[in-house]
Amino acid sequence: MPPSAIITNSPPSTANRRLLIVLAQLAVYTIWGSTYLALRYMVEGFPPFLGNAIRMLIAGAILYTWMRFRGAPAPTVRQWRNGFLIGSLLFVGGLGLVTTAEGMGVGSGLAATAVGMTPVWAAVVSGFFDRWPTRMEWVGLVIGIVGVVILSREGDFDALPLGLFLLILAPLLWAIASVWSNHVELPAGFMSTAVQMLCGGLALSLAGVIAGESIGAVPGARSWWALVYLIGPGSLIAFSAYAYLLRTVRPVLATSYAYVNPVVAVGLGVTLGKETLTGETWIALPLILGAVALIARSRT
């Protein structure tokens, strides 16, 4: 979905709003599913935190410039501060840890499937803001958890327990930030997305420096193309769509992309990435897909 399709200053009609919700979900379902393989290619030439910092700073600068050109007001100091807190949790705690796990050797399909815990954590965190899941959502969440538990028995995670720990912590931090973003003062519309990406890029840069990361040799062509893809579709389009969903639908549905992304990621990982998967993955995937179906159906 092109950014111009959802960046608007006038409220959409009910029909257009429903269409935007569908398009936004399709964007996060498919594009973010493909970014796991792109991240694997990116870390071949860029370190996890600094590579994602470049991605977010460029994408955030483009979106910020576009929104200012369209007349959006400049964020206040308070909004920049809140944007830094949310962006740090999203991109350092969420995205950065996932990329680090992939850099350690965890396959892209497995990483995406493990991140299926995001709606579970989002539902729990939402409960502290008086938005507990419905009964059908709880059933879907339990099924999703069972799928992720089965996935944890996959061979890569037995060999890389730290990678599994990072892929459990990352969706928790992402879910906290996603729910919390609706309860703090942030700029209106997609200026909020721009601020979170810019601040997240700054936080990723600091994390990279603290971790001692550096870009030594010139990255190869595949890493550069992966970075370009992550900046464009992966950030400008998909994250803008995700920010729209967070403001429009229930958190459990907005984060349901984590149940669908594995299907895309596994397919691309096996075909393009030449990854191999064990039987646990093929058992976990149908359970995760069934979970997202229940969660989507429970939405009024």
Give your account of this protein's structure.
- This protein is mainly α and 300 residues long.
- It has one domain (14-297).
- It is 74% helix and 0% strand.
- 55% of the residues are buried.
- Residues 1-10 have low confidence and may be disordered.
Low-confidence stretches: 1-10
Mean pLDDT: 81
Gap from first CA to last CA: 24 Å
- Assign the structural class, choosing from mainly alpha, mainly beta, alpha/beta, alpha+beta, or little secondary structure: mainly alpha
> Helix count, per DSSP?
13
Secondary structure layout:
Layout: H1 14-42, H2 48-69, H3 77-103, H4 108-114, H5 118-127, H6 135-151, H7 155-159, H8 161-180, H9 191-210, H10 221-248, H11 251-254, H12 257-271, H13 279-297
Keywords:
300 residues; mainly alpha; disordered N terminus; globular
Q: Nutshell version of this structure?
A:
The chain is an all-alpha fold and 300 residues long. The protein has 13 helices and no strands.
